[in-house]
Amino acid sequence: MNTSTRHPIIRAISLPILVLFFIGLMLGFSTQLGEGRQDVHAAGIQSSGFADAVFNASKADKKGDIMVDCSSVSSGYVAVSCKASKRLKFQVVKDGSTYNYDIKSDGSVSILPLQLGNGSYKFRVMENIVDSKYAERFSKTVQVTLSDPNQPFIRPNDYAKYTASSACVQKAAELASKCKTKLEVISSVYKFVSTNIKYDFDKAKTVKSGYMPIPDDTLRDKKGICFDYASLAASMLRSQGIPVKLVFGYGEGSYYHAWNVFYTEETGWVTGSFKTTPNKWNRLDLTFIANGSPDDYVAKDANYSDVYYY
């Protein structure tokens, strides 16, 4: 079976397109892992608890060197650890939608979101046979009932990888300590990322298929590509209990790109020209904002086509 066509591969945004969107006034933009997270904001908004995502080997389904932990599906994720001599993919199938993930074959743990809502999921571990052909090595069907719809988007996963001790989480907590509302937290993180992280044109030219960001590396290096921006923003905001999706799709229908959408029950201004709509997902494209694109471009749905959510 060929599973290679469904998995999104991060691609660099071409220089001409970036130049087109970087024209404009530089804008400032201010804007989670474990159950029972502590309140970390002594002076500011109180955290509702740090939502973790962990692998529980004692509860995992096992088949040889394959372990799939479905014990936390109500919390919006599945965890997997496998060992093999060949390349592996983990497949999530629900209602005709399929997500294919590259997973490591050295026993490393992958945390993968259940972003397709409640219902029957099929989990499959696929092993590479030849070229782009894969054969099934494990399969299980699980009924998922999320404890709330936002569970997959308030926790770490392979696409937004952090722990309670991560530098990006500590920075987010520092920013949040000065805020009185979640909207202020979003605004503070927005401003911090857009003013401190620069676009890495060299990385965009050389990044390879299968690249996965480390948010703390982006924070340390102060530069990155669109995937890095989106992963860092998701990590910082999720760690403060704010639901955030990392989105892959197309900008103006022609180039592959990564951005975020966040959920808030509040209405208000994130920047001087960006106002949130309450009780809905609002777009956050820090790659473009940090490099001069106006807020009204990011606000227009016609400029974006969502494909995958993480």
Task: Characterise the protein shown here.
The strands form 5 sheets. The chain has a 4-stranded antiparallel sheet, with no helix packed on it. It starts with 14 loop residues before the first helix and ends with a strand. The model is unreliable at 1-43 (pLDDT under 50). The chain has 310 residues and is α+β, with helices and mostly antiparallel strands. It folds into 2 domains: 15-49 and 156-309, Roll (C8orf32 fold), CATH 3.10.620; 57-153, Immunoglobulins (Immunoglobulin-like), CATH 2.60.40.10. The protein is 22% helix and 32% strand.
In short:
By secondary structure, the chain is of the alpha+beta class. 22% of the residues lie in helices and 32% in strands.
CATH class term of the largest domain: Alpha Beta
Query: Which runs of at least 5 residues are low in confidence (pLDDT < 50)?
Result: 1-43
Summed over residues and divided by their number, the pLDDT gives a mean of 84
Quickly give the CATH architecture of the largest domain.
Roll
What is the distance, rounded to the nearest whole angstrom, between the alpha carbons of the first and last residues?
A: 24 Å
Q: For the largest sheet, list the strands in their spatial order.
A: 1-2-3-6
Main sheet overview: 4 strands, antiparallel
Tell me, briefly, the overall form. globular
- How many structural domains are formed by the residues? 2
Structural class: alpha+beta
Rg over CA atoms, rounded to whole Å, is 19 Å
Name the helicity range.
Answer: 10-25%
Task: Tell me the β content.
Answer: 25-35%
Strands, total number? 16
